Structures are given as structure tokens and as C-alpha cells.
Amino acid sequence: MITRSEFIEVAPEGWVQTAREQRDRGLAALDYLTAVDRGGAIEILAHLVMPGTGDEAMLAASVPADAPRIASLLGVFPGADWHERETAEMFGIEFLDRDGVEPLLLRAVPKRSPLRRETPLPERVGTTWPGAEEKQRRRRRLPPGVREEWVDPDG
Amino acid sequence: MAESTSPPPRRGVIALLAEDCTSCMLCVRECPTWCISLDSHTEEVAQEGSRRPTKVAVLDDFRIDYGLCMYCGICIEVCPFDALEWRPEYDYPAENRAALVYDRESLTAWRESK
Amino acid sequence: MEVTFCSLLRRTTMWGSGPRTIASLRFMWRLTSRPSARVEVVGAGLACCALEVEAAQAAGFLQSDPGGEPEPGPSILIVAGTVTTALEPAIERMHRELATRGPVQVLAFGACSTSGGPYWDAPTVRNGIGIGIGIGIGIGFGSGESGFPVAGYVPGCPPRPEALNAELERLVDAMVSQ
User: Fold this and answer.
1) Which terminus has fewer CB within 10 Å in chain B: N or C?
2) So what's the ipTM on this one?
3) Which CATH architecture has domain C28-177?
4) Which of A123, A133, A142 to mutate to test the interface with B (most CBs of B within 10 A)?
5) Environment class of residue A31 by beta-carbon count within 10 Å: exposed (0-12), middle (13-18) or buried (19+)?
6) Hey, which chains touch A, using 3+ CB pairs under 8 Å?
7) Do B100 and C155 touch (CB under 8 A)?
8) What tens digit of pLDDT does each residue of C30-68 get?
9) Could you tell me if residue B113 is inside a domain?
């Protein structure tokens, strides 16, 4: 059985309508909703699946990183509740036209959204990486998961 | 008393074949928990018939911290020289964190594990 | 009073606007291979390692406590899984309550309770339940001053049930011989 798989780019204004259209044509299961920080823009992703056949669609909407707002999908998929709460606390996304966006996994809303690119991961920055090869006089490498802008150039 | 009827694990502990290690540090860099580290130095070895000596990496020490190891096996997969291998020993607890850091000698000893 | 892990969780942890109730779970056993040793084995099953502790019970290494009032005496607290900052108070409370009944030996079962394991770099994860900053490779943000005196660390991700049984036998033998 061949399943169909689509990637649908959506303008933020059409987010709810597109989700409703896809749901009404059979992709009735919201698998997950999350986000990716692309630098300058945050891409909100909703993965929809057709129960039984496995047909899928990935809806993607891009919002500016400094104005991260998008409509909530609660009216179309009640199951989006926890996904939106997690995406809100991890990326700092504001989901419009809904309430009850309290943190799902973290104990409080963090000052800096943990999964944003500019939020450093202190454990990785502050731990000596065994792979740094300082002894071999080669160019000092950064460990995986550490961005150059997190590291103090003089430190 | 209950007896174990399950077969020995394939992934019990990781052993080192130091003679095959070139200190390339691929395992060190790829380890997700940063639990591997090694010390090495380079030596010049004169080669007969060659005008210049060759630089050879010599492994001094190799450590795996089994308190951090998540037994993913990425180090074994990535080693270009097959200098790391799985061994079935699974019972090696410790009374403190430092005792879980195995050095070259103890990692080599794991090769005998059945 | 029966000490159940999640009743402590209910009382000590707050999420959002108020305490939430988690389904009550019981993890109290005796070690099958040491029937005459009166040592209570209590499991704090926090993550995947909990399944290996349950497998140890299924394999017969551990026997369910028949129930009723727990007697005074020594106990072993198995911390099996990732200790997050949210859950730390519950584990500490569990340890305190067990300590009112007798000496408690803490067993760190698996990589997470030993060092934070695969989640060592997460800000919400404690790098192991031992006291102080662990020595060894890769330990940067350690456990700090708080923590438990750990009687044994069982490496593995997760360790096998047989490894748990072997370590429990060692701990019980050491406790009984004192």
C-alpha cells in the first residue's frame, strides 16, 4: 500500500483553515505539533495522519522569531492542547485565541526559551570536552551542540 | 533461588584493542555523553629508505566513564580500525564514581570477558 | 504507614497551580536469594531503569512484601532512573521516611542516577544522586553539595536485572554482616 506524504507550507493567517481542510479530507489525527528555530524565523510544524492508511501531511508555518504568534489549533484538534503548551514554553510561541497556556513540562515559564538557538546550553558550554584536542596544537574545536556565539572568545 | 535463563547480553561492556587504536579521537568526539577520553603523543619513527621520519601517534591512555556511558555503541561503529568491541560482561558495579572510570589497562582486560 | 513512592510525590511536588495526583504505585520487596535477611528493598522507579527493576521482580529475584505494617529495620532504596529537579524533593522525602525505620542504603541503578546519563546536559536533570561533584570524565555541572551517600553504583543503560540482583546480594550481605 502506498501512502501519501505531503509537506504543505502555510501562511500563518491560513493555519487554522488549512488544518481544518486537511482534517476534513481525512487526516483526522494530530500526531504532534512542534517548532524549529530556523534563525530569524520559527517554523511551526503540525504533523497530521490519516487513521488507517497512514497518509500524512506536515503543515509548516513560519513566524518571525521576534513576533512568534500563531493561531491555536484547539478548535480543530482538541489534542493540540498539550503540544501547544509544550511548544509555547520551549520556543516562546504565543498561541492566539486560546487560554490555559501554562507550562506543561517545566515548573515555570523560563526567562529564555530553552529550544531557541540563542539560548545556550550551559552544561555543554561549561564542561571540558574530551574531544577538544588542545594537546595536539590543532585548531580548537567546539563540541557538538555548542554554537560559536555562546562561547566567550576570550574565555 | 531464581536463576537467569536469558542469554548473555551482546552489549555488556566495551573493550579496547589498544594495538589497533591510532588516537584518531573519532570515538571521543562522537560519544553523546562525552564519556570517552584519551591521551596520546606523536613520535618520529625513522623509516628505512625514506628521507624523512614518519610521525606516528602513540596512545598513552584511554578512558571510558561507565557512569556516563549509555551503551549506544556509536564509538564502536565509528572506529575506523575496529579498536573497540562489545563484550558480554554486565556486572561491574562500583562504590564510588571514580571507580567507574576504566583506563586502558582495565578496558583491555575486558577482552577476556565471556 | 505504607511508604509508597507516589504518595510522597503527591505531597511534595507542585506543578502549575496545585498538586496533581499520580496513580499510586508500590515498589517494596524482599530479596529472594537472602530469605533470612530482614532488609526491605524499595524502588524509586523514575524512568526506563524502573522496567529492569520490575523485570527483576518478574524473574523472581525480588518478592513482593506481603503487606501490612512495614517493620523497623534496614532498607535499600534503589533509585532507578533520571532524577529531575522537580522530583528531587520526593526522593529526599522518601529517603527521610525510610531512615526513620532504620539505616538506609542508597543504590544508584543505571546511568541516570549515577551521573545524569544520556541527559547529563539537560538543565533540569541532576547529574547523579551522589554527594558532591562526581570525578571522572565529562562531569561539569555536578550534583553540588546535596545528595545521598550512595552505597553502590550499578552501571548500565539500563543495567540487567541480573546486575541488580548481584548488587543487592552484595549490599544485603554487607549489611547483615555488620
Assistant:
1) C
2) 0.88
3) 3-Layer(aba) Sandwich (3.40)
4) A133
5) middle
6) B, C
7) yes
8) 889 998 888 888 888 899 999 999 999 899 999 886 665
9) no
